[in-house]
Amino acid sequence: VQLVESGGGLVQPGGSLRLSCAASGFTFRWYTMSWYRQAPEKEREWVAKINSVGGTTNYADSVKGRFTISRDNAKNTVYLQMNSLKPEDTAVYFCRAEYFRDAYWGQGTQVTVSS
Q1: Closest CA to 3 of 33, 29, 46
Q2: HSE of 66 in the Cβ direction (CA atoms, 13 Å)?
């Protein structure tokens, strides 16, 4: 099982980034996919979630209206489009796959929002 995040980097406040998480080793289309983030010296927090067929999405209040989660089950990939980025969005972003008691994490990708 692998979840590999990519797309992180350094961006100025107000900018955009698109994160990707490529999955392998399990039946991706069955799994609810989520993005979490962890800022330095803070606990990991949930950011967004999308159900297995992509019809239902949920967002943390802190990112609602700025971030969009989506998935392509044909490509076994989940995305996080991040717009209007703020310095407080700086964190390591992780994707998570969940299906009943099965749960997998990626290794994370760093997002830094700074001028």
Answers
A1: 33
A2: 16
Q: Which amino acid is at 97?
A: A
Give the three-class secondary structure for 5.
strand
Answer for the pair 5, 38: CB distance below 8 angstroms, yes or no.
no
Smallest CA-to-CA distance from 85 within 77, 97, 93, 74 is with: 93
pLDDT at 54 over 90: no
Percent of the chain with pLDDT over 90: 97
Structure tokens at 59: 């967002």
Q: What is the pLDDT of residues 5-41, one digit of tens each?
A: 999 999 999 999 999 999 999 999 999 999 999 999 9
Here the tokens at position 36 are: 């979490």
Q: Are 34 and 98 in contact (CB under 8 A)?
A: yes
Looking at residue 85, its amino acid is L
